[in-house]
Write a structure and sequence with these properties.
By secondary structure, the chain is α/β, with parallel strands linked by helices. The chain has helices at about 15-25, 40-45, 45-60, 80-105, 155-160, 175-190, 210-220, 275, 310-325, 355-360, 375-380, 405-420, 425-430, 440-445, and strands spanning about 5-10, 25-30, 105-110, 115, 120-125, 125-130, 130-135, 140, 155, 170-175, 190-195, 225, 230-235, 240-245, 250-255, 260, 265, 300, 340, 345-350, 365-370, 385-390, 395-405. The structure holds flavin-adenine dinucleotide.
Length: about 450
């Protein structure tokens, strides 16, 4: 008899584990309190990228002339239609996942699950028994204890996705990935955006040089970034909201029609019954071992709820890993997890940053290829940005950082190189198509050993 597996949470961690397990012959039950697809499909990755596309099209429409196209009318973003398009994209994907689950034979129960024992959960008043349990309950927006956050107009990313009109002025508290993505989207639509960040810089974890190059582009887009500021209070000021804060030189204030709170996310561990069976949690979520198993044998925790990456593809990879582990296989999971930031232009990165290498006192080489020298990028009118490659002293690729059009797609060649431990010499024999953005990656890698043809290299004597 195969083991009975219950999965709590139908996001990219939970639904992937469920489908994979059923495909391997298990009978799984997936319990979801809201909609399958989780945060990612419903209020995260997908809706934001649908809005990003609308913003990108609007940006392009505003520079038709630069492509030699005359246009005498005006282009305007229409909040209702943009929202509707986003909803269509989301609903299409959610119903696709519903179909995948049903054709794999996964039993889906809608309701809030609570663990009641080492082999049981309760949902909709009914007790279900399991041999193995996968907790994939994700994370929620963290709302810091700022006075006035309860004011109307102070929103999280979930509410802002359903914007009824494009705000004239938007204040974003938190300059991490989510905050900066919303900044780029709304600034494209014409909103005056102010980003407030408590740390000395935005986008922590992203290569410092990339962030430095992004800054003037943000300014050009009417995005003001204020760093090292601590927000103290948000007060109503007529139709506006006033954000009061402490800066390095004293008190400051900015105002907006709406205030987005994007100050990080916290694992969904409350009301789950973890204490019922003694499942240990730490600062960032449920504590797991290398197999994503909790301290209780047979109970796993994957995705945002274990706080390791807070990325959809990491949650899915863990879902597949755990499914195979339950099946008694010997799965492997990649060491490198790429990250993308959908600002204008896109940023994508994998592996070490220079800052990390310096902190660890490790020696390295870097090479950069500017997109302004790439034929495809220039033809596209997207010459802004670069591909930066970092290697160890043996020219083994250990980090790739890209800013530019389609960075989120381009990063995968860098990911493969990092994951497979490729060197500049391994890459040398790989012929890249012309004209493509991928040539910029190739040239950057070749630059590690001074062998790039399309950039000025020091001449060997
Ligand atoms: P979730 O997707 O959070 O799913 C957890 C599910 O569990 C939810 O559906 C929830 O309803 C359910 N649940 C919780 N508790 C219970 C319970 N007790 N009983 C039953 N069900 C329960 N990541 C990327 O990789 N790329 C992006 O571009 C990206 N953009 C983002 C944009 C925004 C605005 C946000 C907020 C996030 C974004 N993320 C992105 C992060 C990504 O959404 C998450 O990393 C991913 O959704 C985590 O997947 P998960 O399966 O761990 O959890």
């Amino acid at each position: 008899m195969t083991e009975k597996v219950i999965i709590i949470g139908g996001g990219p961690g939970g639904y992937v584990a469920a489908i994979r397990l059923n495909n391997m012959g298990f009978q799984t039950t997936l319990i979801e309190k809201n909609k399958v697809g989780g945060v990612c499909l419903n209020v995260g990755c997908i809706p934001t990228k649908a809005l990003y596309k609308s913003a990108e099209v609007f940006n392009q429409a505003n520079k038709l002339e630069s492509y030699g196209i005359d246009f005498e009318g005006t282009v305007r973003p229409n909040a209702d239609k943009i929202r509707e398009r986003k909803n269509v994209v989301v609903n299409t994907l959610v119903s696709g996942i519903e179909k995948l689950l049903s054709s794999a034979g996964v039993e889906v129960i809608f309701g809030e699950a609570r663990i009641t024992g080492k082999n049981s959960v309760m949902v909709n008043g009914e007790t279900l028994h399991f041999d193995r349990l996968i907790i994939a309950t994700g994370s929620s927006s963290f709302i810091p204890p700022i006075k006035g956050v309860e004011n109307e107009g102070v929103v999280t990313s979930t509410e802002l996705l359903d914007f009824k009109e494009i705000p004239e002025e938007l204040v974003i508290v938190g300059g991490g990935v989510i905050g900066m993505e919303f900044a780029g989207i709304f600034a494209s639509f014409g909103t005056k955006v102010t980003v407030l960040e408590a740390l000395p810089g935005i986008l922590p974890g992203i290569d410092g040089e990339i962030v430095k190059r992004l800054k003037p582009l943000l300014k050009k887009k009417n995005i003001e970034v204020m760093t090292s500021v601590m927000v103290k209070e948000i007060v109503k000021d007529g139709d506006k909201l006033k954000v009061l804060m402490d800066g390095k030189k004293g008190s400051l204030e900015v105002s907006g029609d709406q205030v987005l709170i994007s100050t990080g996310r916290r694992a969904n561990v409350k009301n789950l019954g973890l204490e019922e069976v003694g499942i240990e949690t730490g600062r960032t979520g449920i504590i797991v071992n290398g197999h994503f198993m909790t301290n209780i044998d047979g109970i796993y925790a994957i995705g945002d709820v274990n706080g390791k990456w807070l990325l959809a593809h990491a949650a899915s990879a863990q879902g597949e890993y755990v499914a195979e582990h339950i099946a008694g296989e010997h799965p492997v999971i990649g060491k490198f997890v790429p990250g993308c930031v959908f600002v204008f232009p896109e940023i994508a990165s994998v592996g070490y940053t220079e800052e990390q290498l310096k902190a660890e006192n490790l020696e390295y080489h870097t090479s950069k290829f500017l997109l302004g020298a790439n034929g495809k990028a220039l033809s596209m009118g997207e010459g802004e940005g670069l591909v930066k490659v970092i290697s160890d002293l043996n020219h083994k690729i250990i980090g790739v950082h890209i800013m530019g059009a389609h960075a989120s797609d381009l990063i995968h060649e860098g990911l493969l190189a990092c994951e497979k431990g490729m060197t500049a010499d391994d890459m040398k024999s790989v012929i890249h198509a012309h004209p493509t953005l991928a040539e910029a990656f190739f040239e950057s890698v070749m630059g590690l050993k001074g062998e790039a043809v399309h950039m000025v290299q020091p001449r060997r004597s």
